[in-house]
Amino acid sequence: MWPGSVRARATLGATAVVALALTAASFALLGIVHANLQRTAKDAAAQQADTVGRLAAQGKLPDLLPLTHGADFIQVVDAEGRVVAASQNLTGRPPVGHVRPDEGTLRATWSGEPFHDEHRQRIVAVTTRAPGGTLTVYAGTSLRDADQADETTSVALGIGAPLLLATVALVTWWVTGRALRPVEAIRSEVAEITGHALHRRVPVPDSQDEVARLARTMNVTLDRLEEAVVRQRRFIADASHELRSPITVLRTQLEVALAHPDPALWPDLVSEVLEDTVRLQDLAADLLFLARLDAAEPVESGPLDLADLCRTTLAARHGDRIPVDAGLQTGVTIEGNSSRLTRLLTNLLDNAQRHADRRIELTLRADQATDTAVLEVSDDGPGIPEADLDRIFERFTRLDDARSRDLGGAGLGLAIARDIAAHHNGTLTAEPHPYGARVVARLPLSPQAAEGP
């Protein structure tokens, strides 16, 4: 039964709140008006009764009592219940009440007497001592004004309240619809966005409210989504191209072997086929590793001594073309995964081995100013043009395509290394160097290492 749209729920909620507030205010208003009018009537009757009581106490009570403003009738009754004086409208009538309060005490009561009209009376009784004995003065005031005020107020509220509620409902419906109009436009535009129309963006309203911020956030999200899809498509195309090349070479070599079945040529042919197969296997392994990084699969992590990891990695590298000069600061500890950080360092060293001339340097230090571990790999190779310092981390990027292919590079090593650094809340950048190339990884120190001794 609850409305399904935000517009209907907002309208219903606003109307219900106003209805509750209006009901409470109406009862409060009726109560205040009724109490004030009754208090006024009571005060007028009490004032008249006190005046007549003083006259009775002084022995100056006339037979016909005059009425003042605010009193409708006056009657004086002795202790035996006989009427000794009254206003003209009560002449010849029996006592209006049988209340005998203590001397000087006022007591009020509700009654339709003595006129039997449709309006109530507020009656005040005052007992006083007169020369002839104890007398009770009854003064009454009609509640005609109070009843009429109650009726008028009730009618006004009965007519005005529904009109006010209807106005609130209509205004809320209109305002909510106008406020949600940009949301509907956003919904319609998002519904039209498909994988082939990622360039489309939702309209941003001119207002600076939550809807405008939502639209801007959605457009930023769509920008990231389009960038991810474009990157994925480019990655698939590049991967297909990279896989096609070694597969084509393998097929050509096998076709040559079938066309020239000379056993003397088979050792060289098998060696070439094996080399291309290994290259294809490495490429497939890199693609699988990138897919796992993109999927953000959880891995074990813990405190790692980077100096130990660097020494272990260097010790496991046999047959490097150029020996690595290492300058490692001890006690540099971070939180991370050992196998992935080993892969990061291995990729940096492999990249340096491909391009270095005679020298490769590996340095590790702790930067206490930024609470980071700084791992640098530099070489004396041809270097990296300043315009390509960031581009080399893109997947399948090779600045010297022919040379990289000959040396076995597929353009994925640095991309994998940067993704690993990012997964460890760090960065990997290529920075200017007086000679050759320098790649710097910055990883946050573990809390214990950051605090220092």
Say what the CATH topology of the largest domain is: Heat Shock Protein 90
Overall mean pLDDT stands at 82
**Helical content (DSSP H or I, runs of 4+):** 40-55%
* SS class: alpha+beta
Biggest β-sheet description: 6 strands, mixed
Share of β-strand residues: 15-25%
**Count of helices?**
9
Termini separation comes to 66 Å
Strand arrangement in the largest pleated sheet: 1-3-2-6-5-4
CATH class of the largest domain: Alpha Beta
Count all strands and give the number: 13
Name of the CATH homologous superfamily of the largest domain? Histidine kinase-like ATPase, C-terminal domain
User: Which outline best applies?
Assistant: rod-shaped
Rg estimate, integer Å: 50 Å
Give structural notes.
Mean pLDDT is 82; it is low at 401-408. The chain folds into 3 domains: 6-147, Beta-Lactamase (2-Layer Sandwich), CATH 3.30.450; 210-293, Orthogonal Bundle (Helix Hairpins); 301-451, Histidine kinase-like ATPase, C-terminal domain (Heat Shock Protein 90, 2-Layer Sandwich). It starts with 5 loop residues before the first helix and ends with a helix. The chain is rod-shaped and about 155 Å long. It has helices at 6-57, 144-192, 210-259, 266-295, 306-315, 338-355, 401-406, 413-423, 447-451; strands at residues 64-65, 73-78, 83-87, 106-111, 121-130, 133-142, 302-305, 324-328, 333-336, 360-367, 372-379, 427-431, 437-444. It has 9 helices and 13 strands. It is an alpha+beta fold and 453 residues long. The strands form 3 sheets. The protein has a 6-stranded mixed beta sheet with strand order 1-3-2-6-5-4. The chain has a 5-stranded mixed beta sheet with strand order 8-10-11-13-12. A two-stranded antiparallel ribbon has the order 7-9.
